């Protein structure tokens, strides 16, 4: 199986084999995914991503492999629009583009938070698709006048490969326009923002075959037709498939540019309590839902490193973690989900300003800044894990961490210290592995998600982190709660 996994900073193509020894993967291609600012607008370079997918196919051919199928997963909420002749209308906007700022508050005042949440069960984030489309409509965007089809990023890239325009369930649920109770796009919300329902197709479930490679691509690359599967196309949905859990009740943290923490449930938890805590109910593979909360994640650290690189103060990741480990503990704590950390740019001064505003020492050197980020994330993870237990009426024995962020050993250990429970870290390529697993479920090689998790557990290493230094982490957690005690910091939104 060929899995394309596209993150907000990079993409990769992995080839997977399933045999009696388990699952084996091989990285075929890795590439950057860098947004492009044109004028005042921030876009995804979608045609470059399409080119990289084709390059992945070419490299697979050079290795003498012919995948049985392929699947694509990516980040959520962003989309492209097709016109009457099936051509893309403009480059998709990036969810961090500033034109969407403020629209969420407007729509919530018009409809109320309760009404929107009752119909979608989705966390309030200012860049959700609902608010992106409302912005374009109210600005009179010519794109919407010409659009005949709405496709999210994996849908769009699949369309380039196959010519088939199909929406997929897990990604559709992230838009805050899909009603999980009715199983359809929500007509009331679409009508309110003035968007036609005809733009949207039925959202197919993960594991559905949605075409095969275009004949022109097969001819250009010298390939036979390869079936294309709609996997769990939201990358977190794929990552959760790859959580090597042994029990039905488990908590996970998909850790990368974003951190997403939650648990897997059979039905969406749409309640006043989950609304107040600003949790989300996103679709999962196998008819499940992901009760989770978005946390800003390693984006803050990544932006600091990019800032230092621009200033000629670049530092390797390994060296930065070494300096962070040596820096004084708990000198400067902050809420990673504070709105000031959302945009790209001068991240170090924002951290320092937060600390100044809260009467703390301002971290000055790179090690101190990195330590403040990682400790603040670990403490936020504990808060969100407690909320997850509260909402799901469960108590978890530990936390499964998957994704590229688990290569940060300090973050894994400090998370275990913070939550006071074991952390089980692995696999690192969770989204790509879950992507493949859904493809194997589609062709019958794996019976269901639980057989897939057993195979994954037996195939990939998991590192155990036991909690340490409990008294000082307990004290730090109490201080963290006091520093982040505003309603906005705790719930993530005004409800």
UniProtKB/TrEMBL annotation:
CDD domains: ASKHA_NBD_FGGY_RhaB-like
Domain of life: Bacteria
Keywords noted in UniProt: ATP-binding, Disulfide bond, Kinase, Nucleotide-binding, Rhamnose metabolism, Transferase
Domain Carbohydrate kinase FGGY N-terminal: 1-241
Residue ranges of every copy of the Carbohydrate kinase FGGY C-terminal domain listed in the record: 251-442
PANTHER family: L-RHAMNULOKINASE, SUGAR KINASE
Family to which the UniProt record says this protein belongs: Belongs to the FGGY kinase family.
Protein name: Rhamnulokinase
Species for this entry: Paenibacillus pabuli
């Amino acid at each position: 199986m060929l899995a394309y996994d596209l993150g907000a900073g990079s993409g990769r193509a992995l080839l997977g084999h399933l045999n009696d020894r388990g699952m084996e993967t091989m990285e075929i291609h890795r590439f950057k995914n860098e947004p492009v600012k044109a004028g005042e607008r921030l876009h995804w370079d979608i045609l470059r991503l399409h080119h990289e997918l084709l390059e992945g196919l070419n490299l697979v051919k050079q290795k003498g492999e012919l995948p049985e199928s392929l699947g694509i997963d990516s980040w959520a909420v962003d989309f492209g629009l097709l016109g009457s002749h099936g051509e893309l209308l403009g480059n998709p906007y990036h969810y961090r583009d500033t034109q969407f700022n403020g629209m969420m508050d407007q729509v919530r005042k018009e409809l109320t938070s309760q009404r929107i949440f009752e119909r979608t069960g989705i966390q309030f984030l200012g860049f959700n698709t609902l608010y992106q489309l409302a912005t374009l409509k109210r600005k009179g965007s010519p794109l919407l006048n010409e659009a005949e089809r709405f496709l999210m990023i994996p849908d769009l890239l699949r369309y380039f490969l196959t010519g088939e325009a199909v929406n997929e369930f897990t990604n559709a649920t992230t838009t805050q326009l899909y009603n999980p109770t009715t199983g359809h796009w929500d007509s009331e919300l679409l009508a309110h923002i003035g968007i036609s329902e005809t733009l949207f197709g039925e959202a197919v479930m993960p594991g559905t075959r949605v075409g095969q490679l275009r004949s022109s691509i097969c001819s250009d690359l010298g390939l036979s037709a390869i079936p294309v599967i709609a996997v769990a196309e939201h990358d977190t949905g794929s990552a959760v498939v790859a959580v090597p859990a042994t029990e039905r009740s488990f908590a996970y943290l998909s850790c990368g540019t974003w951190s997403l923490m939650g648990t897997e449930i059979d039905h969406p938890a749409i309640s006043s309590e989950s609304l107040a805590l600003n949790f989300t109910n996103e679709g999962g593979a196998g008819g499940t839902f992901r009760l989770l909360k978005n946390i800003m994640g390693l984006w803050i650290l990544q932006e600091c490193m990019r800032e230092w690189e621009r200033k000629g103060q670049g530092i390797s990741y390994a060296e930065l973690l070494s300096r962070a480990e040596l820096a004084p503990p708990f000198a400067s704590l902050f809420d990673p989900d504070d709105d000031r950390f959302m945009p790209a740019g001068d991240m170090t001064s924002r951290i320092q300003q937060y600390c100044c505003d809260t009467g703390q020492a301002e971290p000055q050197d790179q090690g101190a800044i990195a330590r403040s980020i990682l400790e603040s994330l670990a403490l936020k993870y504990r808060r969100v894990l407690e909320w997850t237990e509260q909402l799901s009426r469960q108590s978890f024995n530990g936390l499964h961490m998957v994704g590229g962020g688990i290569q940060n050993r300090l973050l894994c250990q400090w998370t275990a210290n913070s939550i006071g429970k074991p952390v089980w870290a692995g696999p690192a390529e969770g989204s790509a592995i879950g992507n493949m697993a859904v493809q194997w479920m589609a062709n019958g090689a794996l019976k269901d998600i639980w057989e897939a998790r057993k195979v994954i557990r037996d195939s990939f290493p998991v590192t155990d982190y036991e909690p340490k230094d409990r008294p000082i982490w307990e004290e730090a957690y109490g201080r963290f709660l006091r520093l982040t005690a505003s309603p906005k910091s705790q719930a993530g939104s005004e409800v």
